[in-house]
Design a protein that fits this description.
It is a single chain. Strand 2 and strand 3 form a beta hairpin. The chain is of the alpha+beta class. It has two domains: 94 residues, no CATH class; 143 residues, 2-Layer Sandwich (Alpha-Beta Plaits), CATH 3.30.70.270. The protein has a four-stranded antiparallel sheet with strand order 2-3-1-6, with helices on both faces. It has a two-stranded antiparallel ribbon with strand order 4-5. It is built from eight helices and six strands. The radius of gyration is 29 Å and the shape is elongated. The two termini are 44 Å apart.
Length: 257
């Protein structure tokens, strides 16, 4: 869980216990442990310093009642604080690895996740690496304003997220209007996934009059045993993207900005 390095061993242990057993069981367990320690220490003190019967009875009663009252209350408060700290750490971790505009992985998280996917190939699936950018994005911003440009990016991001579906994947905003995709899918699903990604890049409405669209470039890691890095694969996908962009420029749709 994010932020573990900033938590004490006690916090991590209490958090793990709470997540595994639930808050109520944590309170019961901690209270039982406190009661056991309290009675053990009281009994040990009487072995070292003998006392009369009445003192023993009162001391044992106090050693039982006090933990039964204090421990549940204290544990409830501490568990709440530990969960709040863990939640705040998770949120900080999410913010540090998420693009604020699109909600996708940011550049750092994308490269980390992508490298992990590529490093663990599954013989029953095929890996796809893609690059996407918005055609004439500067013109979109100049003509319609940056708010409209941001809306186009957010719409494209959501479409790409849906297009990869439940496949093992990472979709990230690499910067500006550039997006990266790494996914693994069964071979018989590749056509459907590719079509979904192409469809995600199709017409995006800008206001009531104009349309924008994006271009997709895809590649697969080579099967010749060559170990390509994520940078190598993205470079190949980028080359495919610009080849597709060049082909479109030969016959540009009149309705697109």
């Amino acid at each position: 869980m994010g932020g573990d390095q900033h938590q004490s061993r006690f916090q991590r242990g209490l958090l793990r216990l709470t997540l595994e057993r639930g808050a109520r069981w944590t309170i019961v367990i901690v209270t039982g442990a406190s009661l056991t320690v309290s009675l053990s220490m009281t009994s040990l003190s009487f072995l070292i310093f003998p006392a009369d019967r009445q003192t023993v009875i009162v001391s044992i009663a106090l050693a039982t009642i006090i933990p039964m009252i204090v421990a549940p209350l204290a544990t409830h408060v501490i568990v709440g604080l530990v969960l709040s700290v863990a939640s705040a750490n998770d949120e900080l971790q999410r913010l540090a690895t998420t693009d604020s505009l699109t909600g996708l992985a940011n550049r750092r998280r994308f490269f980390t996740a992508a490298a992990g996917i590529i490093a663990r190939p599954d013989p029953e699936t095929v890996t796809l690496v893609g690059m996407v950018d918005v055609d004439s994005f500067k013109l979109v911003n100049d003509r319609h304003g940056h708010a409209a440009g941001d809306a186009v990016l957010a719409t494209l991001a959501e479409r790409l997220r849906r297009a990869v579906g439940d496949n093992t994947s990472v979709v990230g905003r690499l910067g500006g209007d550039e997006f990266g995709i790494v996914l693994t899918a069964p071979e018989d699903a590749l056509v459907a996934v590719t079509d979904a990604l192409q469809q995600a890049c199709s017409d995006i409405e800008i206001g009531s009059s104009d349309l924008a669209r994006a271009t997709l470039g895809l590649c697969c890691p080579g099967g010749d045993g060559t170990n390509e890095s994520i940078d190598d694969l993205l470079a190949r996908a980028d080359a495919a993207l610009y080849a597709a962009k060049l082909a479109r420029r030969l016959n540009p749709p009149a309705s697109l900005v």
